[in-house]
Specification:
Elements lengths: L3 H8 L3 H9 L1 H5 L3 H14 L5 H8 L4 E6 L5 H16 L3 E6 L6 H10 L4 E5 L4 H12 L5 E4 L8 E6 L1 H14 L5 E5 L5 H16 L9 E3 L6 H10 L4 E4 L2 H13 L9 E5 L13 E4 L2 H15 L7 E6 L2 E3 L16 H10 L1
Parallel strand pairs: 1-2, 1-3, 3-4, 4-5, 5-11, 6-7, 6-8, 8-9, 9-10
Antiparallel strand pairs: 10-12
Length: 353
């Protein structure tokens, strides 16, 4: 293996200068551009390779970012990770995936990140405020920046990158309103989360601006998983023409339930989701939804870390990524059949056969 000493001897300069230039960053900027070009050219000609282990021992940092999440099995986390990998590859970094499942032990996780000399940590889909605050303080004490991606907790410290849920709810209402819908149902699973509350705020604000006051029957909120049978009955009873679900999975379950009872989507009821997951295109009908741009969220999370590496001053930063409207066949102009829907009687007739 070619050592830095060989490059120094070839150019007739000190090994310290070669090391600083090859390490990059602020130390390299101290040298003239011509000197930096000569060192980099010589390193390439001699076939020099960075020894990342030696770098970590010397600087206390690896060119590695930690990606912490509960699971990478779901598409949401996978798309965020894709964006992180794209950004790290562009910056000659790599990614270490850390799964914490249901465990919320900040000292243990911080010790793991510090021991692996991580340059920064991205945490996705974790909403425990006490855990996040403790982890931030522990990592910050060692100069390791932490970015919370997709978090639903609002602490006034650290780096945060989230989806703009208020804007997402707004564009859903605008789409359905332009199709002529005036009788809505917002069916939200995990309605206690900040993202659900943001979606509702955006939708209801846009409705108010259009002169529509959402009645109590227009909201169907669930603490955990939604009950699609209950939602179908509410749609029939209140002659709802458009339903917005806060996840694509929830929208899928609702469409299947409606179709089971002979309710047509979108002829009788338009249905929208959120996420733009892969299966949306394969549904019958294909699902209209809003895309969170999760790959962009992951890419931007990594970029925030690169911007903070080497800066020890504590800073609070929060930014959001706008949703994109994805129109497919599950939403259409208002039809004249909604008054004919009777989920209970149709269900009874099917059972009698």
């Amino acid at each position: 293996m070619v050592a830095q000493k060989s490059i120094a001897e070839k150019l007739g300069i000190s090994r310290t200068a070669v090391s600083a230039i090859l390490s990059g960053g602020a130390n390299a900027e101290k040298f003239r551009p011509e000197m930096r070009r000569r060192v980099l050219k010589a390193a390439e000609e001699l076939g020099y390779q960075h020894n990342e282990l030696a770098r970590a021992i010397r600087t206390g940092r690896n060119n590695v970012l930690g990606f912490v999440t509960q699971s990478i099995r779901n598409e949401y986390a996978g798309r965020v990770l894709d964006g992180v990998i794209q950004s790290t590859a562009e910056n000659d970094f790599s990614v270490r995936i850390i799964s914490i499942n249901q465990e919320r032990n900040a000292p243990k996780l911080a010790k793991q990140c510090i021991g692996q000399c991580l340059a920064g940590v991205i945490l996705y889909d974790i909403s425990d405020e006490s855990f996040l605050s403790s982890l931030y303080d522990l990592l910050d004490a060692h100069g390791i920046p932490l970015v919370v991606a997709g978090g639903s907790v609002k602490m006034e410290k650290g780096l945060w990158i989230t989806s703009d849920t208020v804007q997402g709810g707004n564009i859903v209402f605008e789409h359905l309103y332009q199709l002529g819908h005036r009788d809505f149902l917002l069916s939200f699973a995990y309605s206690w989360t900040a993202y659900s509350q943001g979606l509702y705020q955006g939708f209801s604000n846009a409705a108010a601006e259009a002169g529509i006051r959402l009645p109590k029957c227009s909201k169907c909120f669930f603490h955990d998983n939604a009950d699609s049978e209950k939602i179908a009955r509410i749609i029939a009873k209140n002659r709802v023409t458009a339903c917005f679900c806060n996840t694509d999975f929830h929208a899928l379950q609702l469409i299947m339930t409606l179709q089971k009872h002979g309710v047509r989507v979108p002829e009788d009821v338009s249905v929208m989701g959120r996420g733009n997951l892969r299966f949306c295109r394969a549904l019958n009908p294909p699902l209209s939804t809003i895309d969170e741009s999760l790959d962009m969220l992951g890419k931007r999370a990594a970029e925030l870390i690169f911007e903070r590496i080497g800066h020890r001053n504590r800073i609070f930063h929060r930014e959001s990524i706008p949703h994109k409207l994805v129109i497919r066949a599950s939403t259409a102009e208002v039809g004249g059949n909604i008054g004919k829907i009777d989920v209970e009687s149709r269900k009874g007739r099917r059972n009698d056969k």
